[in-house]
Amino acid sequence: MTLTPAPIIETERLILRGPEPQDFEPIAAFYADADRSWGFDGPLPRHEAWRWFAGSIGHWHLHGYGFWTVTLKETGGIAGIAGIWNPEGWPEPELGWVVFDGFEGRGIAYEAALAARNHAYGPLGFTTMTSNIVPGNTRSEQLARRLGAWLEKTYTNVTMGTDQLFRHPGPETL
């Protein structure tokens, strides 16, 4: 049972779908891992991970976009989340991604982020996208650059503190 109006997006290897109740456990595990979640405002205790999950579901209803659950076509395994995030206090909509433990190094984040950005530029009609990356999150910085984004500025994010805003190329240049 999907909890959002999220469209389903298929790529060569992935299915991006709206959050479902069983998706909470991988989110809770991600947020419990300090080494993995620090760049995403973690670690968080389970009850705070639940609040983030519930807020993510609400984000779809308020904005018409949000984070998809990223699953593998071949196995149905939940590999991460990717999508568009723009909570109160954010400078503008952001393209974000997380790959869960055991799914790194396969190009999943790139494939999912590219699909989410294409959706933003296509059906949603966005003309620009950013990715907000905590300084020191080198893997996300590398992925943003692989997607064609560049570091536009460092700013104070209301949630994360010092943050870097990477600007993605617009749809007219892709």
From TrEMBL:
The keyword Glycosyltransferase does not apply. It comes from Salinihabitans flavidus. It comes from the Bacteria. The keyword Mitochondrion does not apply. GO terms for molecular function: acyltransferase activity, transferring groups other than amino-acyl groups. This is Protein N-acetyltransferase, RimJ/RimL family. Keywords: Transferase. The lineage of its organism: Bacteria, Pseudomonadati, Pseudomonadota, Alphaproteobacteria, Rhodobacterales. InterPro entries: Acyl_CoA_acyltransferase, GNAT_dom, N-acetyltransferase. Residues 13-149 form the N-acetyltransferase domain. Pfam families: Acetyltransf_3.
